[in-house]
Specification:
284 residues; alpha/beta; 8-stranded mixed β-sheet; 11 helices; 38% helix; globular
């Protein structure tokens, strides 16, 4: 089985619609794909309706969190999307995205970049607007050569000149809320240092003690020594280890299935979840 547990659609900051994403996942030879848009489950219904036969959909979301001033993301799988407390927190995060993005556009204009809110809003469309949409605008304006080039201290990185903080969950609260909604949590790309500051390993241990289920080890932003280090940490803390592409369509260079999760680990995630179940494709 080929299992990719971290992808994004136009419901957040990917370039494939949810329907296109599941069709592309099937063409890429995947057996299981998780749709984990940022702080939203808005793409799940479309993905479910278009799911090709032979492909299983894992519903999820990537939750924006902050711990001691450091941003981090938690992948939440197979939770009940209607659980009111978790739904309310996701809504708070989403509601803050527009004013935050407008503020970043304002900072960029103060830096002399001829960017407009209308340009960014057009790129975001109906998705949850975020930094990748602003980065795409910078590419289109010729300010940077690629989306990745925009995520530096010069522009949009966590310590960047145009960065603006947003409402983010406390990760301990997020773990509690996801567990209460019957879901499973995995720390996304925990040592992706190129994205900015990362939480220390002691914090990962604290999160594990609070009920974190796993860490994403095999990821494009983790080199071989980092992956080995994370595997050792996971073994020490009793955490599951996953692998995923973090696919965003044409917005990033990674492809569906570039990194995958072991079938036994996937089975354990499904076994632990009580809020929702994987959806088998029927040729929709």
């Amino acid at each position: 089985m080929r299992i990719d547990l971290h992808t994004h659609s136009t419901a957040s900051d990917g370039t494939d619609t949810p329907a296109e994403l599941v069709r592309n996942a099937a063409r890429a030879g995947l057996d299981v794909v998780a749709l984990t848009d940022h702080d939203t489950v808005g793409g799940h219904a479309e993905a479910r309706a278009a799911l090709p036969e032979g492909l299983t959909l894992v519903t999820g979301a990537e939750l924006s969190c902050r711990l001691d001033g450091v941003s981090l993301h938690l992948l939440a799988y197979l939770f009940d999307p209607g659980e009111p407390e978790l739904a309310r927190e996701r809504e708070l995060v989403r509601d803050d995205r527009v004013p935050r993005a407008r503020a970043m556009v304002g900072k960029l204009r103060d830096l002399g970049v001829p960017i407009t809110w209308e340009h960014v809003a057009r790129i975001a469309g109906d998705g949850a607007v975020g930094r990748p949409h602003i980065a795409t605008a910078l590419v289109e304006l010729g300010v940077v050569g690629s989306v990745s080039d925009a995520f530096t201290s010069q522009w949009l990185a966590n310590d960047g000149r145009a960065y603006v903080e947003k409402h983010e969950l406390d990760p301990f609260d997020a773990i509690r809320l996801v567990r209460a909604a019957g879901g499973v949590t995995v720390f996304a790309h925990p040592l992706a240092v190129k994205r900015g500051s990362c939480v220390p390993e002691s914090a990962i241990a604290d999160l594990a003690a609070a009920g974190l289920d796993g860490i994403e080890v095999d990821h494009m932003d983790h080199d071989a020594p980092t992956r080995a280090r994370l595997r050792g940490l996971a073994a020490e803390l009793g955490l599951l280890t996953t692998g995923s592409s973090d696919y965003h369509g044409s917005r990033k260079t990674c492809r569906l299935g570039d990194c995958t999760t072991d079938p036994e680990i996937y089975g354990e995630i499904v076994r632990r979840a009580t809020g929702a179940f994987p959806v088998p494709g029927t040729g929709g």
